Records
---
Amino acid sequence: MEQKLKHVDIPSSEITPESLYLSRRDWLKVMGIVSAGALLAACAPKLSGITATGSGSSPETQGAPVPDNAHGQTADEFGNPLNTFDEIANYNNYYEFSTAKDAVASLAADFKSTPWAVEVDGLVQNPRTWSLDELLRFEQKERVYRLRCVEAWSMVIPWTGFQLSDLLAEAAPMASAKYVEFTTLMDEEQMPGVGSRFYPWPYTEGLRLDEAMHRLTILATGLYGKPLPNQDGAPLRLVVPWKYGFKSIKAIVRIRLTEERPQTFWNTIAPDEYGFYSNVNPEVDHPRWSQATERRIGELSRRDTLMFNGYGGEVAGLYAGMDLSINY
Ligand code: MTE
């Protein structure tokens, strides 16, 4: 992870979000999913005996449940305004392209995100390869989430996407499946950063199966009602809003169910700095900096960082009985 926090060249006057973005239906049209039949089919995926986990009740409860349809919402559930499209699309961490946040957008401009396929395999009863068009038939939701990077900056982003639980239900995990591993495309021709021998490519990430099944865990396919910009992980990236941003892996080509905890990119590089769980936790500092506060892109003063990034009301139950200073 980048060690020095670089100055961001984003005018603080630009805090007005794009208030006019497409309705869900218009968005589906943009993405080429127009038929009512396709929509209906998507709304009724076969269930395979597993369900998404719901709200946990815990003393750490914070924040109201995040609504599924945030269309037209200009702030998160705490009233924090959305970051602008320009902020979200020009300040990026995507090491396959560059370690310079302001260089990613231009380096990724010609990235080929269609056609695209995602392999879902490992400990599942129904292994198969999904095309992007097929994945877009899962019920697309609009969710406004805070993204808190482990480097102590944050944004509020209006994503479009579907619950990973919908896809995993189709795959039907076997009883032995305990974890989910995600892998990013590794294409040296398109991704100049992949040439760097310092990093253990491809970028991989992992979740416990119950974390992956949680309703807040989505595969994002768009933001601000538009298809995902290349620099934000087109055509498909994970978003796990209560964890540090590096868990939200971009440009996913493979989702594998495993019994063993998967190796992850950052945990392989520095296990004492980037734990497997990496839940946002203001009380557990990074060995080289405090995690108590953060800088919201577009704001001048720092804010307090919230436990589980403010999603404790929905997710704290996943970690009941665990010591989060050990399981960081
Ligand atoms: N995914 C891949 N494949 N490569 C990366 O370098 N960076 C991560 C995460 N996903 C990264 C990645 C980090 S550190 C963060 S904070 C978020 O993406 C940033 O997402 P954004 O650029 O859309 O804000």
---
Amino acid sequence: MNIMRVRDYNQMSEKATEFLVNRINSLENPVLGLATGSTTEGLYQRLIEKYSQGEISFKHVTTFNLDEYVGLEQSDPKSYYYFMNERLFRHVDISMDRVHIPNGAASDLKKECEAYENAIAQAGGVDVQVLGIGANGHIGFNEPGTPFSSKTDVVDLDKSTIQANARFFNSIEEVPTQAVSMGIETIMNSKEILLVVSGDTKADAMAKLLEGEISEDFPASILNKHDSVTVIVDEAALAGS
Ligand code: F6R
């Protein structure tokens, strides 16, 4: 893993933006894997700025998001589809038929998961997968205990994840308890991975990741086995290392 230590959230977002701008401009038909959540918001805001300044275009970009809550329609303001549209897609020149986010409201979720895997394969795989990390080490919504061989599937969210994500909902009861998530193997099949980490709530997870012990009890630990991972991490998140 290539560790890039930065000062704070803003610098993390700037460096991550530089990284993606470079990939978007150097790949002919970039296939990006994207994450939602607080960590990537600054990155998406800056990508919109780069687009407005004419430095990048999304015309040839295809995207696959990591996950979506089960039971939420795309039009639901709490859905990850809505989040991505508001935070990135509607502000840039991406063609929406190149945008992929699992449909958590599909009537046949198993079929939806298979179709998602097929769509990734058909696009030639993910070139650059952007990841955040959960305080419990989850990547995507693959919680501790998920087999490393997992593919896109319906997953149960940990209590701690539900608690952490309650900040986006009116009450903890409203947080869906399941999601459709790319699998760990799906994530590991991407050609390159960019992990962004910020803040002291991630310090323990970061320390564990850097220890290097690989275990299904700590999903992100598998990243130690991928041969092209860049971690952009701020000082607060490195406080435990
Ligand atoms: C989001 C995702 C999650 C988040 C992680 C960190 O699509 O798959 O793994 O990346 O929960 O979330 P934040 O950035 O909100 O701390």
